Amino acid sequence: DPHLINSPSFDDLVFNAALGAKAVDPDAIDKCVREAVKNPAALNDYTELDFLPFDPVAKRTEATVRGPDGKVFKVSKGAPQVMVKMVHNSEEVEDEVRQAMEAFAGRGLRPVGVCKTDDQDRWVFLGLISLFDPPRDDT
Questions:
Q1: Which pLDDT does position 136 carry in this prediction?
Q2: CA distances, 108 to each of 97, 103, 131 (Å)
Q3: Side-chain half-sphere of 49: how many Cα atoms within 13 Å?
Q4: Cβ neighbours around 99 below 10 Å, total
Q5: What was the pLDDT predicted at 131?
Q6: Where are the beta strands (DSSP E) in 10-122?
Q7: pTM
Q8: What is the rounded CA–CA span in Å between residue 136 and residue 13?
Q9: How far apart are CA 44 and CA 108, in angstroms?
Q10: Fewer CB within 10 Å: C terminus or N terminus of the chain?
Q11: What is the pLDDT of residues 3-27, one digit of tens each?
Q12: Can you tell me whether residue 1 is helix, strand or coil?
């Protein structure tokens, strides 16, 4: 189950996460996110202008995208504790993000934060999606 913060629906949250996922030769997480989109053909209406792949130091991806209306925006997905520090209203949402992270972790799920820039080019925290992340055999 997702945790919505500034996203109107699960479908919107997953769609934006998919816009922040690498389309060509995706890693496992990007592949899962893109496959979860309800209407994958709609992704073709968006043009990826730039893509920064997941970086283990920055702990997020970032895509610059042009929408079908011609507007350019950025979408990012990654570690929620990193993502929440990017948003313009971090103090307002950080407790909610932390609680959602803890709830996901308590169920053995890895939370992934999703952010998008608004019309003023400020980052907005859309919500968290979860991935099943079972413990490895060597841990």
A1: 54
A2: 17, 9, 9
A3: 10
A4: 11
A5: 80
A6: 47-55, 60-66, 72-78, 109-117
A7: 0.91
A8: 28
A9: 33
A10: C
A11: 999 999 999 999 999 999 988 888 8
A12: coil
Question: pLDDT per residue over 57-114, tens digit each?
Answer: 999 999 999 999 999 999 999 999 999 999 999 999 999 999 999 999 899 898 999 9
Question: 37: how many CB neighbours lie within 10 A of its CB?
Answer: 18
Number of H helices, E strands in the chain: 4, 6
Q: Which two tokens stand for residue 137?
A: 């055999």
What type of residue is 38? K
β strands within the chain, DSSP E? 3-4, 47-55, 60-66, 72-78, 109-117, 123-132
**Residue 18 main-chain phi, psi, to 5 deg:** -65, -35
Q: What is the sign of the dihedral through the CA atoms of 64, 61, 18 and 27?
A: positive
3-state secondary structure of 17: helix
Token pair for 118: 């608004």
Closest by CA position to 11, among listed 53, 48, 39, 31: 39
Could you give the CA distance from residue 64 to residue 1 in angstroms, rounded to a whole number?
27
Residue 137 has pLDDT above 80, yes or no: no
Distance of CA 115 to the CA centre of its chain: 6
Phi then psi dihedrals of residue 136, to 5 deg: -75, 155
